[in-house]
Amino acid sequence: MKLRSLIFLATTLLVGSAAAATIPHAATTTATLTIPVGTVVGSVINNVEYYRGIPYAQSPTGPLRLKPPVTLSTIGTVDATGVGPACPQVANVDSSPLFFEVLQNPSVVEALFFGSALGDVTEDCLTISVMRPQDTPSDAKLPVLFWMFGGGFQLGSAQPYNGSVLIPRAVAQGKPFILVSINYRIGGFGFLGGKEVLADGAANLGLLDQRMALEWVADNIAAFGGDPDAVTIWGESAGAMSVFDQLALYDGDNTYKGRPLFRGAIMNSGSTTPTEPVDGAKAQEIFDAVAEAANCSSVPSSEKLECLRQLDFETYANATTNVPSFMGYNALSLSYVPRPDGRVLTASPDILAKTGKYAAVPMIVGIQENEVSEDSD
């Protein structure tokens, strides 16, 4: 990968989303809102209310590491005025040390994270952020745009996507809406494969996180003035792949409490992704590499996942980077990716698309210009 491709990645590819922008510096006030699961205190800047980093599931740490998300029934009072966390990232680059040189440039770093902080990286990261026009009444029934970030299922966070550009423009056009962005587990925390993972029922955890966040929206968005029956899911790159996966989960069953979780879908530069089963050769190779790096390879197969769960955060996080990076020469062969498990994702997404096993909602599918330029040299 050449230096110019790395710079292009940082300055052109990633800043292309209008959903991401620096929150303007201005006098800030707070807003307090009671929702079904608790109370959230947000910030108000330039006529936009920001409620960022609200937990939507129990902390996926300790015995809940590498387990499906668990519902959080109450949150008490949450200070949602900050940036919120980011889930653990897979930041290794196996193709060129030039990437690290590029990251020494402050302007490139700002571009990578859209001038808005990624958030502190922590395993306790399953949070949701809600942005709305200031003083939206609870009965407004505004449409909801539900955003899932991209990053090769190895990088990314909800926090840079703050709606500070889109929401004011929508209000000016008389088409106000509510923007929701979510964190979901990525890398070896959210998309670890292998026969051990399949046997434990721990596959596709990142997709299950996304589904639980959608259920949280169904239960809580009306308190923000949103319409739970007017949710559109939207993502870019890996986020767009996730959008189709949400269409295809459970063979297209997108209902919750008898109602659809979303009514439309937008996929930017991603859709169906052919993949082998979660216990296939590629997934097993990745699992074995992680287990070896974590010194868990010598225990019986049935005990390896438990060994990984008992590791301290730093040790396990480092072990998950012992795999080829999506920013390397073999970028299109993703180490961590949703894979068919026979239950949540019953088959490869391309097969589910061909057989009509997906939620038949209106869709917009497109590409990001120069999306893969960083992989072309």
From TrEMBL:
It is an enzyme of class 3 (hydrolase). The keyword Signal applies. Residues 1-20 form the signal peptide. InterPro entries: AB_hydrolase_fold, CarbesteraseB, Carboxylesterase_B_AS, Type-B_Carboxylest/Lipase. GO terms for molecular function: hydrolase activity. Gene3D superfamilies: alpha/beta hydrolase. The keyword Transferase does not apply. Keywords: Hydrolase, Signal. Its EC number is 3.1.1.-. Residues 31-372 form the Carboxylesterase type B domain. Belongs to the type-B carboxylesterase/lipase family. This is Carboxylic ester hydrolase. It comes from Phaeoacremonium minimum (strain UCR-PA7).
